[in-house]
Amino acid sequence: xxxxxxxxxxxxxxxxxxxxxxxxQVDWQRDQMVKMxxxxxxxxxxxxxxxGYEEAFSIISEVEGxxxxxxxxxxxxxxxxxxxxSGIIDDETRLFVRLLYVDQLSRMRIQRVMRMSPxxxxxMREAVDMAENxxxxxxxxxxxxxxx
Length: 148
What we know:
By secondary structure, this protein is mostly helical.
């Protein structure tokens, strides 16, 4: 595989999974905050140690800060992926690349969605893999079609 854009596209799915995981973590932490506030909030405080709601709020603020940092990083990666995909001139090739590398569908499902033969699927995959970058995929595919 020579195409330098493929790893960028393949990261999108994992990034989206991590974003969902972070959102679930924050939701869980908020639920814990409510429970802690109900059970611990009325206990006397000792020293400067935060208790109950304050402790839960500091934990959730920390998690939200981490989530914000990751979301900023992920936004850059997703923007880069969108730039790669929008650089593909041919609509069919763009759909193929999105289904294969971003959505990570199986070959059979892609063939069914795009109504293509196994031979055409193999040719498209080779054209994408062997191109220097996604902008050059259409030119390779166009030349392969002329040779047939």
